[in-house]
Amino acid sequence: MRRPFNEWTFTHMNWLMPTERVPRGEAHRPLRHDPQPMDLTYRFEDRDYSIEDLHRRTFTTAFVVLRQGMVVHECYPGAFAGPRSRMQLFSVSKSVTSMLLGIALAEGAIDSVKDRVTDYLPSFGDTAYAENTLADLLDMSSGVGDREDWDVPDSGIKRFEQAVMGGGNVAQVVRAAPRTAAPGQRFNYSTFDAQVIGWILESATGMSLAAYATKRLWSAIGAERDAFYWLTRARPRTAIGAGSFNATARDVARLGLLMAHDGAIADRQIVPRDWVRRSRGSDQPHLAVGALGPSGYDHYGYANQWWTLGGMAFDAFTAVGVHGQYLFVDSSADVVIVKCSAWPTQDDERRDRETITALRRIADHFA
């Protein structure tokens, strides 16, 4: 996971972990190309930087910009990245899981976000999650677990990672998380919450996460390549709906295009329109931009497993993964940007803030 090795790791997860394929559909829908110059600058900390500076300063490996559904810019600065490389997306996977949950609601596999976790996972009745609704988990407001800290050796997220990679019992780690706040009252970024959502989806649909993603999402977006989830080492193997989805940058951009266009592609509604709009922003005060507290950066709000960026219309929002993975969507500008990276650390507030500043500048430029 350290540089420079992680550039290889983040494009070869299928060499390192068990996987389950998410096959592309029979109908491939090519993205049109309309290359545009990217000779713009963004201002960060009282200095002007170019997009080339952004890639150098934030270790970009893949970068795709869509405007009105067309590729206007694409580059792969990473040593092992290219148009066919499946990128490790980390917590961008959470936003994909949210899209799948919206689809499951629309087709009736899940009744309501007001349903309780135990309606789908009865075995969680003796855990802190017994009190929670799906809505609590979607907004990272379950009140379960401590702050997610990668630098503390025995933190919940480190024990989760060790169980996933080392063959431990992942469910046992999640089930042991303590209640630290009342449900629905406090934002606390939680991989555990997103992982429970993935298990709920599998229970409700009777399908693995990869199989459901294939049937309801990936086969419908015109993807160029198969995607995959990598799985836990221990059996029964399970996908990490909170962080193990891998796909090409172009295909991730197709997901962003779906969200930019209210969940529809070519007049076919894939993700419910109301679900997309729910993902753009929340009216709950504790989820507003700047109100997330120590578990979120000041330039973000949160809603429905997406990071929100404010504004009256909630038009710009983004999926974010550790080590610098982004799926940025600006609906009003009809701009989608995918940025994959290989940061030397999982989190970095300054690099994140610089990246968001640059992505918003690009969207404004093309708008």
Automatic annotation (TrEMBL):
Domain Beta-lactamase-related positions: 61-353
Name of this chain's protein: Beta-lactamase-related domain-containing protein
SUPFAM superfamilies: beta-lactamase/transpeptidase-like (SSF56601)
Pfam families assigned: Beta-lactamase
Organism the protein comes from: Mangrovihabitans endophyticus
